[in-house]
């Protein structure tokens, strides 16, 4: 899981035309589910903590092993997850979400989705991780290939799959942010300055699947 944020000093949002909205996108069922989960967490973080995060406490065992029932137990699939911090990271996430202020839902963007798809396709082809592209591109540079962003831009990356409930697993993992000291993924998700998002869920040779999410405060497609 990786998070990346860039802030623009040029507040040009008043010059931007309205973004292209979800009815021009073709999202997979899992990608649409990720959007729904993101907006559930943003719009009602207290309920997200109670209904999504707190029930996960029962699936920790042997210290740092997390073994929710939806993981596929067949060979070649994820069996369990060995976390970095154990249940403490989940407890901290529950407390943080219960005290978080609700923020507006994200609107899906065509251009941001293209930026996310570009990065995921490259990482899947070359078995890569991280925010920097093979050509040295940063998230904001990739976003700028497909439109103009302003105010703030960022990227979240999640690696792994659970076969069932994959959309919830992606968002929950980013919000728990196990092993990420500054909880940057959660902070990005819960930052109300972000208004638009592009989402992809794609194969990855080492992790099975990955999700790339490109975010912007304002965005206008080329």
From TrEMBL:
Keywords of this entry: Signal
Entry annotated with the keyword Signal: yes
Signal sequence bounds: 1-22
One Pfam assignment: CAP
Residue span, SCP domain: 91-209
Listed transmembrane segments: none
SUPFAM superfamilies: PR-1-like
PANTHER family (alphabetical): SCP DOMAIN-CONTAINING PROTEIN
Name listed for the protein in its UniProt record: CAP domain-containing protein
Source organism of this protein record: Ferrimonas pelagia
């Amino acid at each position: 899981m990786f998070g990346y944020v860039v802030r623009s000093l040029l507040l040009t949002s008043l010059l931007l035309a309205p973004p292209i909205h979800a009815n021009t996108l073709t999202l997979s069922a899992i990608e649409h589910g990720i959007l729904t989960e993101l907006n559930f967490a943003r719009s009602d973080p207290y309920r997200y903590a109670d209904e999504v995060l707190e029930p996960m406490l029962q699936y920790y065992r042997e210290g740092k092993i997390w073994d929710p029932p939806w993981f596929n137990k067949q060979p070649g699939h994820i069996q369990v997850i060995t976390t970095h911090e154990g249940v403490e990271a989940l407890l901290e996430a529950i407390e943080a979400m219960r005290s978080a202020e609700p923020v507006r839902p994200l609107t899906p963007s065509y251009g941001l989705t293209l930026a996310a798809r570009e990065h995921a396709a490259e990482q899947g082809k070359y078995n890569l991780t991280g925010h920097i592209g093979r050509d040295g591109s940063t998230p904001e540079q990739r976003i700028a290939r497909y439109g103009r962003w302003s105010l703030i831009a960022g990227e979240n990356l999640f690696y792994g799959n659970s076969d069932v409930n994959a959309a919830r697993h992606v968002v929950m993992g980013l919000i728990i942010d196990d092993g990420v000291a500054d909880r940057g993924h959660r902070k990005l998700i819960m930052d109300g300055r972000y208004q638009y998002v592009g989402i992809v869920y794609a194969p990855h040779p080492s992790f099975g699947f990955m999700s790339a999410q490109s975010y912007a405060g304002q965005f206008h497609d080329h």
